[in-house]
Design a protein that fits this description.
117 residues, five-stranded mixed sheet, Trna Endonuclease, Chain: A, domain 1, 2 helices, globular, single chain, 5 strands, alpha+beta
Length: 117
């Protein structure tokens, strides 16, 4: 998927999450060995690291299935890097996945835990 198309799906995911009362903290956080598409703050104050995935068709595994163990480890690494720069007390954190399969949005809150990556 091209970067431009990925940006479109990220924007759709961001709009959806904002309708769920989440606030954007950062977008496209990168570090050596990982990237986080969206970092959000939910209404309870939890810091949410969001991976956005998309598949054009259902001929392949669904988009959420593409967040495999290797990808989860990269997300955890990027989250740890992000948290080093966090000022103040560390909030509760979680990892969500927003997947688009043939245009349909599927939100998986708390899709995996850092100790499972």
């Amino acid at each position: 998927m091209s970067k431009t198309l990925g940006d479109v799906f990220e924007s759709h995911a961001l709009e959806f999450l904002q309708r769920q009362r989440m606030r954007l903290v950062a977008r496209n956080v990168t570090c050596r060995g990982g990237e986080i598409d969206l970092v959000m703050l939910d209404e309870r104050g939890a810091l949410v690291f969001v991976e956005v995935r998309a598949r054009k068709s259902r001929h392949y595994a669904n988009a959420a299935a593409s967040v495999d163990a290797r990808k989860r480890a990269r997300l955890v690494r990027a989250a740890q890097h992000f948290l080093v720069t966090w000022s103040g007390a560390l909030p509760v954190c979680r990892f969500d996945v927003v997947a688009f399969d043939a245009g349909r949005l599927h939100w998986m809150p708390d899709a995996f835990r850092a100790d499972e990556a």
